């Protein structure tokens, strides 16, 4: 995971240097006079969980792939609100995940693991490049985390020990958003961001690819894949893991 963090930071630095060398966009009449447009999207994220969770010094490995999602995901939901005006862009994103797993550590001993994640983030960005049917934005913002980890050591039928703890913190983050229209009704959006940098979590990064199919002037269906990694440790509480999986959503253009 540490090596992955260094590689990602190098990639992000490369793109930042590349973007800094781009000529500035000239403001068009449409950029100056256009009104704000808003949209909201609700998602269901079929997310797995892989990595290490810890509570009060006790750690457990979790490995939930795509085939385990439906049987181990207790709840999932995401909601996004975003707006555009000229070159400006902002979004608010909320996510809730409740995932549990059970592992047999010996013939008579089991460990139950539960991870509940609430994440809220807000960001503002600007368009730095535009082509005939594509655009590139950079953005920065803050991400709030609230994580609850719970470990239960038990026999086949009797709990022996239970450890539970909750942590909350804020992470700054930066990212890049690329959108391109593949056809009159089909749009591809790709996003990647990184944050934490030791100010909240040690490091966090995520990425998303979204295909949006336009149903009408105000509605569309979203299908895509999302990845989210976080490395956080404080007083025996550990979350060094990633969520990933496909999502399905519905977008409503408000204005």
Structure described in brief:
With 255 residues, this protein is mainly β. The protein has 3 helices and 11 strands; from the N terminus they run ααββαβββββββββ. A 10-stranded antiparallel barrel has the order 1-3-4-5-6-7-8-9-10-11.
Please characterize this protein's 3D structure.
By secondary structure, the protein is mainly beta. The protein has one domain (2-20, 48-253): Lipocalin. 11% of the residues lie in helices and 70% in strands. The protein has 3 helices and 11 strands. It has helices at residues 2-20, 29-33, 69-72, and strands at 37-55, 58-64, 73-85, 88-106, 109-130, 134-154, 159-181, 186-195, 203-214, 219-234, 237-253. The chain has a 10-stranded antiparallel beta barrel with strand order 1-3-4-5-6-7-8-9-10-11. A hairpin with a 2-residue loop joins β4 and β5 (109-130). The protein starts with a helix and ends with a strand. Mean pLDDT is 85; it is low at 1-5 and 22-30.
